[in-house]
Amino acid sequence: MTDGSPLNLSWKRRMDEYARYLQQLEDAGVTVLLRPFHEMNQHVFWWGGRPGLTGSAGLYRMFHDYLEVEKGLSNIVWVWNVQDLPDNYGWADGDPKFDRYEGLEGGLAEYDAGDWSSFSPGKDYYDVLSVDFYDPEGYAARHYEQARSIARRDGKPMIIGETFVFPSRAEQAAQPDWTLAMPWGVRTWNHNTPEAMAEFYHHSIGAAGVPRLAARRNAIDALPRVSAEATSDAREPATDAVLTFVRPAHSAGEELTVRYAVRDDRDTRAGRDYAPLDGRVTFQAGRTTATETVRVLDRRGHSPAGRTVTVTLLPGRGYRASAPATATVRILPEG
């Protein structure tokens, strides 16, 4: 993801190949549902298991900007995809697959694969939310509710991106916001009875009834999109928190200063719990990230456990705030 590095240049050559074929489709009037870096909350893929805008979501954003801004493609409907992984996935104590990272240079930090929002590229970077269903738990209500919450927050439709087992009529009635389900190849025949398949297709829209997707003709935003996230929390007496601000690689040629507002919760006060922030951060030329340290101050006596500091990007010249534009760090008591 470091612009101009040998690995980055190799990756751009690969993206050039993708763009060449996508351009052929655009020239033919074909709009594409593109689902890059699928199941990005799953660590077995080289692109997955790294939450945050400098992780898997950042790679998705870079791919998006390269195809749309650098290559000028406008026939892509962007699909962001996660999977219904078990609760212990991504944790060394409960996920046997995590052993592969032990002692590996660079390694992989433990993470919560069930926190789908931590893998979101932001609502400006995708058009459709998709969830793959393979866990034995099936179409659990909690997965549906999390998907619906994200989709409604971001104003997006939601689909079942991959599945072996078709949702039943009862499951479809209980979870009506799913708009599409894609069976995964020949295994569909191994996991569904002929009767279940017939019933699903009987109540679905056939190919002839599916509306044609029009080319989007995306208007390229001349202003770089800037987002913010909390990359670490603070802990008394001397562990500081870090806020990370992100901008696209194509806009990184010049220095850029962005402004933000600071809001404390009722138990937190600048100058007592943390050193005051000045409300602006500067991206150095050539850098796609900028960081702001929230320096913790040791609050003597009783320290409430739930203290937070929230920053929100403000409008300014030369950039546009893009979701996530708000980030919250916690200040944890000693111990």
TrEMBL record:
Where's the active site on this chain?
Answer: 39 (proton donor), 162 (nucleophile)
Q: Which UniProt keywords apply?
A: Calcium, Glycosidase, Hydrolase, Repeat, Signal
Query: Domain GH26 spans what residues?
Result: 1-210
Quick check: keyword Acetylation in the entry? no
Stored SUPFAM superfamilies: (Trans)glycosidases, CalX-like
Q: Which InterPro entries match?
A: CalX-like_sf, Calx_beta, GH, GH26_dom, Glyco_hydro_26
**Gene Ontology molecular function, alphabetical:** mannan endo-1,4-beta-mannosidase activity
- GO CC, alphabetical: membrane
Q: Name one Pfam family in it.
A: Calx-beta
Q: What's any GO biological process attached to this entry?
A: cell communication
Q: Which family does it belong to?
A: Belongs to the glycosyl hydrolase 26 family.
What name appears for this protein in its UniProt entry? GH26 domain-containing protein
